[in-house]
Amino acid sequence: MDMFVNYAPVIVVVLMFLLHERIVVTPEQLEKKHREILSEIEQRFTTKNSFEDLKGQFSEMKDKIDKIYDCLILK
Question: According to DSSP H, which parts of 21-47 are helical?
Fold first, then answer.
């Protein structure tokens, strides 16, 4: 116990340095950063469901263009 008392000022200074330089974060800071990352991802990227829907629409358009092309060639 005496050892901790002797080194208490050093321990306090090291902990304050870690908190000041944001090497150690609080759960609130982590939660806030997590929300920021999620909102940035929503703005930049699409969801997998949206991508699959768009891919399906392109496939349908390709099929329709192929049918029109076949009709024009056969006539």
Answer: 27-44
